[in-house]
Every structure is written in structure tokens, then in C-alpha cells.
Specification:
Number of helices: 26
Shape: elongated
Largest sheet: 7 strands, mixed
Oligomer: single chain
Number of strands: 16
Strand content: 5-15%
Length: 714
Amino acid sequence: MKPTTLALTDLRGGLIAAAVVLPQATAFGVTVFAPYLGTAAGALAGLAGAIGLLLISGAAGGTIGLISGPTGASMALLSGTAALLTASDIPPKVIAPALFTITVLAGLIQLMIAFAGGGRLMKFIPYPVFAGLATGIGLLLIKSQIKPWLGISYSGLWIRWYWLPMATTAVAFCAVRYAPRFIPNIPGPLVGLIGGTVFYQTILYLTNPPSVPPYWVIGALPQWSEFHLAVDQFTVWPSLPWSLILHAAFALAVLSSLNTLLTAVIADTTTGQRHNAHRELLAQSIGQMAVGLVGGLAGAASVGGTTTAVQAGARRWAALTAGILLLLLLFAGSVGQWLPTSALAGIIIASAINLMEKDIIAWAQQRRTRLDAMVALLVIIVTLAQDLMIAVLVGLSIAILLFIRSQSQLPVIQRRLTALERPSVRKRPADQVEWLAHHGDRIVMYHLSGVLFFAKTDQLFEEMLPDLDRRSWVILHLRRVIQIDLSSVRLLQQIAARLEAHRGELLFCEVPEELGLGRDVERTLRRLSLRPGRLNVRTFAGADQALEYAENALLKALNVDTTVMEKDITLAELDLCCDMKPLEVAELASVLRPLALESGERLFDASEPGSELYLVLRGRIDIRLHVAGERYKRLAIYGPGTVFGEIAFLDPGPRAAEAVAVRRSELWVLSRADFDRLRKTYPDAAIALLLALGRSQSRALRWSTREIKRLIQW
């Protein structure tokens, strides 16, 4: 889009924004400050609030197309605070300075929220809480307009039926609600202001009543020369009830920040841009403090002004343009004597109805959303029965409780596997495999995920309890755990102690550094406890290492000799040869070639052509698959008595992974040429070897099938 076109759309959007903000700012200012400063001064305070926020927020540009000004939330909160100050026997002349003080303090709190990263935190407030606040604010707005609607002064009582203010309110309300259907290019609040004013002035001209109460109109705005900074009135600070002031400032800061950030999201959906929450909160906080210092009405981003302006093309400079236009309007102060307060009441009531969340009724009718409806209704009741400050605190408390509830409902155990389902990659002799097949359920691996905090400790303990009340080896896989608090650390100590009482062990694997448990979890747990001695806890870098250790520990507990993995064995002791006759073993040995490897020596690389079968008599060979750089995944461990290379031997071709000697190893090698010689010379031995390899491959296929099923479930 050309720069001239952008300037024109910003100008048009600014004009529309000024037309929307003007009646609302004026009406809100009159409602809050008229009882203490007079109607005209109240209207001026509303305009000052809109101008200050528009100029500062618009210049910062944290959100493209965002229009700010006094809002219903700020008006309702400050009106309620003024009523509380009056009930606290604060003199009327002190109330307006107190409200300006609250505005300045709210700006300071917003500034702290911005620097504390609150721009992100505010987005986590549940929508039912905000819906309850918005609906409660809407009801308070309607309540605040009863006197202007009935034609009663702000300090008076109802003593006479006035039809003209009521009719003017109805006309303005209908114009705001229904005029956009017929003239969509003109903002509803502007139509309501013009329509209500024309109706009111026409009736006065036709009926020519002898006298009209002066409070039925705003009155002429004070001259620019009579404008004074509100800071001159802050000499009343010592007499203020600071507990009430600080509570109100905090509530105003939270409400304004929430309103601004939610409106910024609405603006983003129309403009296609992405707002800068930190910059926007900074601008709003500075604008709020400036508004309080000059004696304006607090505010935030305006939903109505923003949506109308961005639809009209408002982009980067629309808010600044709207602020300049309203600033020029201050020089036309006499226009206020033509504007009826009842017309402003109609505009506010229409805005209040738009602010109310009507979907709460639909939420209450659905079982799945009934809790959300109850939360919203609770916030509404607190807003009406107490005040908006308490409602904000209740809303924040509910938000925290809902977050804890939602987190506690998430399963902390992502998956539970035993060694029967997920054995280690270490290849073992047949007798050890048989023992592990019968007792492998005593090795349990828990994959944990999410945040482990106090609300989940009892759930975790209850789910693990069956494995803790027997001799078992429990492995906690923590790779997907984001955070862990002290309550969960204490639970880990209890789990370790319970397993130790049953002669079991607690093992940790893949512990992220950011959890703060360190590389040795046992040492960390011991530092956080006054219990003497070591805990029966071990930490491993990978899950397979933990499984291998647990399998060895289980076999040792079953009195199964595991030293065969470390000692030399003969060819006849290999599982491959266990079903072969002694003569066939001797015939096979006649064609095998010995091979010795030093620790760290590579036997073959991935993708390297191969056709040899390897029989391990001593040492250890790791089969590895490189994933990135120096990182690799260990696929299998072959120790004494095991055989590998079957695939390449049966179907010569490239190797799928690399083989590395982890310690000094001795192997027998059978090539295809050697096998051909065996087949011709000793056919019975060759057939016995093929049958043994077939049994080995069938077991591998069954294991692969189980592993695929596990991965699908994962």
C-alpha cells in the first residue's frame, strides 16, 4: 500500500476513532467526576483521559490500530471507589484528587507489570473470569446511569417523574443499537450522541418549558486557560485512606492491563499484525500516569473504538490522529452546553449491554462448560455485592485455582513400562533371558511429563504405590519433566525410602539440567534432608543404561550368575550352538577365523558392505546409529556368548549401523566364503547353523513386533 494511501486510511480511522471515543469519554467522565467537580469539569476529565492515552499509546505503536480511552471498567471501578471513599467520611473535595492519585499509582503498577513480563502472564487469565468481570462491569454501568436516565441530579433523590430525560435516553440507546444496520459507515455512539441531542433540543424548542434543570446538560467545558494540573491538588495525600487507595490502584492496573491486552489481540486479528505486549503495557502505564497527573479519567484500550477504527482502515498513526483531533476539540468548550446527560446515559447503557457476556447462559446449559459458567457468575456476584476491587482479586484467585486444577488433572505418568515390554538393548544368554521373562515385571520404568508440583504429589504416589510395596527397581524417566518443586522432591525421598525398606532401588535417567537435580540425584536429595547416610538412589544418563543396571540387579537378586557377561567362554557355550551336536560344533570351529579388537576399535561402519557373522567370546561390542554430529543411539550390546551380523551374513549388503569394541574383545568370524566351504564339506553343520540363525531371527522379529506396538501406543 502506498504511503499516501496509508496516510488517508490512518486519517479516516483516526476520525472514526475520535467520533467513537468522544461520547464515551465524555459520558464516563461526567459519571465519575460530576458529583465532585461538576458536569462540565467531569466531561473535561474524560476528554483529558482519552487524549493522554491516545497520544502516548499511539506514539509508542505497541499495537497497530489500537485505540485507547476511558473504559467502562475504569469508570465502574473509580465510581465504586468514590462511593467507598464517601462512606469512609472523606470530604467531597478530596475525592477527585484521591481518584487522580489512584490513576497515577495504577500507572506505576502497570509499569511494574510490564517490566516483570506481565504482558505474557495476563494472557493466561481464564476467559470465564474476564467474562464475569465484563458482565459485572456492564451491570454496574447500567446502575450508574439510573439518575441521568430519570433526570435526577447526582446528589439528589427521585421526587418527580421526568419524561424528557427518559425519552432522550431511549432515543440515544436505540440509535446506538440499531443505526449501524442502516448506516454502517458511521459509529453507533456518534449517531446516538447526535440523535439524542437533536431529539432533546427539538423537544425543548417545541415545548418551550419555563425552566430546565441545569444538570440535564453537560454545560460548557472550562476554558483552556482555567485548566490546572491535578498534581496541585495532591496536598491531600496525608488524609487519604491508603489501604483503600492501594487496593483500588492494583485492581485498576490489572483491569486496564487485561482490557488492553485482550483488545490488542482483537486488533491483531483484523490488521494481521502481532502486537508487542511489553511495549504496549509500557505505553499504557506512562499514559495512565500522565492522565492522573493532568486530572484525567483513567482508561485502557477501547474495544469499541479499536474494532470500529481498524475496520475503517486505522493502522500505525490512527490513535495519534484521534488524540490530536480531540485535543483541538478542547478549544470548542461551548459545545458541551448542548449535550444532554441523558443522551450520554443511553450511550453508556448500550455500551454496557455490549460489554456483557451473554454466552454465560449457554455455558450453564452445557455440562462440559457448567463450571466455567459458575466461575463467571461468582465473579459477577462479587462485583455487584462487594465492589470491583474484590472481584478482581477473586477473579485472579479463581484463575490460579483453575490453573492448579487443570494441571493436577493432567496425567503426570505419561507411560508405565516393565522390562518385559521394554528390555535393555544388551543381548543376554538364553538362561538369563528366561529369568527376565518370568520376573521382568519387577523392573518398572515411569515416563513422567509436565510440571511436578504439590498438587500432583499425592496422585503420583498413589499410582506408583503397587510397585513401591514390593522388591522392585523403579526407574523415573524425567526427560519430559519441565519443573519440579520441593513438595515433589520430598516425595522422591519418600519413594526411595519405601523402596529401600523392601530392598528395591529408585533409579533416575535422562534428568534435564534445568530441573536443578544435578547429575547425581542422590546427592541432591541428601542435601535437602537431615537423614544420615546415603539413599538407595542411582542416576543414569540414558534409559537403556538404567534398564541394564536394573536387569543385572534383578538377576543378582535371583541368584543368577551374571559374571558370564564378563568372562571368556567357549564356542560350545554360545546360544547359537546350544542345540548343535559336539561334532557339528567342532566342524563349525574348523572354518571360523579369530579376530581380536582393542578398546575403542571400530569393527565396521554404517553403510559399509558386509557379509560376515560375528560370534563374541570375550569383551563387549556396541552397535550404534549416529543421529547428529557426535551423538548416537545405542541399538544393542553384545557380550560373551552372543552373535551379531546375521542380516548381512544371510543377505550381503550395506551395514545398518556401526560396531565398536567398548573393551578389548575376542571374536570368531564366519564369512560367506567360509560358510560355502562348510556347506560343501560338512553339510549337517551348515544346516544346523542355518536353523540356529533362523530361530534367532524369529525371536528378533517377535521382539520388533512388540516394540512397534509400544511405539504406536507411545
